[in-house]
Amino acid sequence: MVDTMRKDQRAKPRVAFRHAFKSRIVASDGTRSTACLVLDISATGAKVSIAGALDPRIDSKNCFIVLTPNGTVRRRSRLIWSNGGQMGFEFLPDIPAMAVSSARPAGRALAVSDYAS
Fold it and tell me: What is the pTM of this model?
């Protein structure tokens, strides 16, 4: 269950933007996404705002937040809290490619969904 009433427990200082920037919350397999605005960010997470609801088919415990317009920078994330249209995501550590490739069955192509925790 996601904590909806939570005291500010930030591990690292955040940078708040004068103008939030457009972004997307993307399913770990890349098949679905929800538009959002990044309100602030730190080394360990981000606060975003969405209009409406997060696509229920996106696993909020293992998704990506896109941090650049062209999608080249994204962070594996999990939802920590939600309060109305605002959400707090914790950035998860990346899984080294070697660990992922050695854990997958032989002959199976590597997919973004292989990063599931």
Answer: 0.69
Tokens 């925790």 identify what position?
117
CA distance 19 to 76: 23
Confidence of residue 78 (pLDDT cuts 50, 70, 90): very high
In a domain, 36, yes or no: yes
Cβ distance 26 to 36 under 8 Å? no
Residue burial 95-110, b: 16+ Cβ < 10 Å; e: rest: eeeeeeeeeeeeeeee
The answer as to whether 74 is a domain residue is yes
Determine the structural domain holding residue 28 and report its residue range. 15-95
